[in-house]
Design brief:
Length: 122
């Protein structure tokens, strides 16, 4: 998804028009999005299941680590009076993961470029 992200930037311009003009690109984007959901949704459901099992136990002596997904599942949208859906949680998890990857890869590229530019630093 990260490698193909640049291919789909133009679809944001006029989504209602680009859905008609660039149907193949939209289908590719939606297919990639479906693959992303197929990976994340079982993980989110499993985390929710383990949290429910822990809450149902009387003996809670083991330590439970609160995760990012737990906070997203507990979050309620004040203006709409509803909790986030699985697709929204997938989007937020993807954004957090890719934000870390993008900045790290940019920093590494910059470091490598400067090592090549100044070989005495090696």
């Amino acid at each position: 998804m990260l490698l193909s992200l640049g291919r789909f930037g133009f679809l944001n311009i006029w989504p209602s028009v680009t859905k008609i003009l660039f149907k193949k690109q939209w289908n590719n984007f939606l297919m990639i999005r479906k693959e992303l959901e197929d990976v994340f949704i079982p993980l989110i459901q499993e985390r929710s299941k383990s949290k429910q099992e822990r809450l149902s136990k009387v003996d809670q002596s083991d330590e439970f680590v609160l995760s990012y997904v737990d906070t997203l599942q507990d979050l309620q949208l004040p203006e709409e009076k509803r909790k986030l859906g699985e697709e929204e949680i997938v989007s937020l998890c993807y954004e957090i993961l890719m934000a870390g990857v993008d900045t790290t890869s940019t920093a590494l590229l910059w470091i490598m470029a400067n090592i090549v530019k100044y070989p005495h630093v090696q």
